[in-house]
Design a protein that fits this description.
The protein has 151 residues and is an all-alpha fold. It has 2 helices and no strands.
Length: 151
């Protein structure tokens, strides 16, 4: 032996021996029926966890879909209600405009009747005034003619 206590060959041999020992232990463990049962149990537990996780995700997505549908329905209801209010307001405005138009038409008709009455009174007064003036002129002409005949 040299001054190096484990030589290169010794180290290589120890490494090979460790590898074969590890391989032997692996073969023993893999041949053990309890190990395969534990592995199957772990796989079954993992499958169960995956299934529960999938169920939770599905339930969460369904709940989100229901919530989105409810929100959409509420939004549609709000929109319909707002549209109904706007229609009602428009109808009310149309009724008010129609009433205002009727009132203005009545006022215009009354004003026209009042003016027609004033015009008819004025024309009647003008006729009577004209007749009065004509009668006064005839009386004056008669007086002048009588005066002329006296002279």
């Amino acid at each position: 032996m040299s001054f190096k206590s484990p030589s290169f060959g010794d180290r290589m041999g120890a490494s090979a021996k460790a590898k074969t020992t590890a391989l032997e232990r692996f073969r023993v463990k893999s041949a053990d029926p309890a190990a395969s049962e534990r592995k199957a149990a772990r796989q079954a537990a993992q499958l169960a966890r995956d299934a529960r996780d999938a169920e939770r995700r599905t339930a969460r997505k369904e709940a989100e879909a229901r919530a989105a549908a409810e929100q959409a329905a509420q939004a549609a209801a709000r929109d319909a209600e707002r549209a109904a209010r706007e229609i009602a307001l428009a109808e009310q405005a149309a009724r008010e405009i129609a009433q205002e138009a009727e009132r203005v038409a009545r006022e215009i008709a009354q004003e026209a009747e009042r003016r027609a009455a004033i015009l008819s009174k004025a024309s009647a007064k003008a006729e009577t005034d004209t007749a009065l003036l004509a009668a006064q002129k005839a009386a004056r002409d008669a007086r002048y003619a009588a005066r002329k005949t006296r002279k």
